[in-house]
Here is the input.
Amino acid sequence: MFEFRGVDFMDFDSLLSEEELLVRQTARQFVEDRFMPLIKRHFRDGTFPNELTAPIAELGFFGANLHGYGCAGLTDVEYGLVMQEMERGDTALRSFVSVQSSLSMYAIYSYGSEDQKDRWLPKMQQGKAMGCFALTEPNFGSNPSGMLTRAVKDRDGYVINGEKTWITNGSVADIAVVWAKIGDSDKIQGYLVETDRPGFIAVDLHNKLSMRASTTSSVGLTNVRIPAENVLPGARGLKAALGCLTNARLGIAWGAIGAAMACYDCALQYTILRKQFGDRPIASHQLVQNELAWMITEITKAQFVTLHATRLKDQGRLSHVHVSMIKRNNAQMALEVARRARDLLGANGIIDEYPIFRHMCNLETVKTYEGTHNIHTLILGSHVTGISAFS
Ligand code: TGC
Ligand code: FAD
Here is the structure.
């Protein structure tokens, strides 16, 4: 309904290069022209617009900050700006791109053999093969080190048994990055499992009230045989899986800013137009201005800290604890912006003519996945005190 103009209170754009501004504009235009006309229907129907896979690939957004294998080789800031614009559209769109790029392709890129990279990365970049990242299990979410899935050495490969759940794009994927324990040991290893192998089944989870436009599946692995060359040679230990999460969490931090911008922008425009108590716009009331002032302050703080963190990553100086701080902060910030924006629209805040309630529902997931708010609190707490709350 409203045209999105971007949110820049403190000349944030002056910190971006011409190339970064161009990448953001390209992503923004794509979301505006191709995605926004579709999202309301897909959110209602609980479906993802799969026809956008090819255009997303053509724009170079899959694996955009990886180098070689046909990937665009964007900087981390450019990639972050793409994530921001995708989630300004909907979290499902950002998840679609980031599970493919930051989790699945990144796992192959960082831990795969040259053969694995040559086989999968060009196809994934072109959107001709989709990936998923299967870590979470029904009884092991925040604590993946307890996972029950096992890969047992067979003559010429491995046999995998286990169950994974809440897997984004599980039923869409051609290739699954599956994390499993080796034999009887507690050692974790990453494996590539083609989803057409006998014994692999993905069943979609329906009736979600959040992320309705995202495909989320449970994955069963029953005696799934894979050859030895499907082991991701560098993906040893939970640390390897956590490395992928660090990579994706940075994109989530950028994405949350996009969702917050969409909610703020909508609430600002609405409160200026909406009149109550005579001819005064509701934006003229002090209590309403208090909400808008809070939102623009929090969005602006998040923009600057996230940009700084991402420049540190480009320089190889970002730690996973820094990433925990901004994922935790930005997800919570965006959720709170969405809740306050929803309130400012009154009854109109609860219908899908406006994007706010949809973002608000999605952001409940953003607060939970890729490490819950509590888990990131404890990662930070452990770092600053030197005392782990996990053990
Ligand atoms: P812990 O002993 O703390 O760590 C084991 C080793 O890993 C290192 N490490 C990390 N390395 C890179 N990145 C990170 N984020 C890391 N966190 C820890 C650590 O230094 C250690 O190294 P070393 O050399 O000393 O061995 O491991 P723990 O078992 O105690 O677990 C810690 C905990 C709870 C923080 C971790 O398990 C965790 O982050 N849990 C949250 C689980 C999670 O985030 N799951 C996400 C699933 S994927 C998903 O949600 C996708 S949604 C995507 C979408 O749709 O967009
Ligand atoms: P739990 O771990 O059971 O946590 C429940 C509550 O207990 C939370 O509030 C948590 O913070 C709290 N809690 C747990 N332990 C502690 C503690 N030690 N101290 C304090 N509080 C604690 N996973 C994948 O592997 N791949 C995917 O692609 C993927 N996509 C997802 C998509 C969606 C839409 C959703 C909702 C989830 C997805 N997930 C995926 C799973 C996600 O990563 C997990 O849901 C998340 O890690 C939390 O695990 P859990 O849901 O089992 O919650």
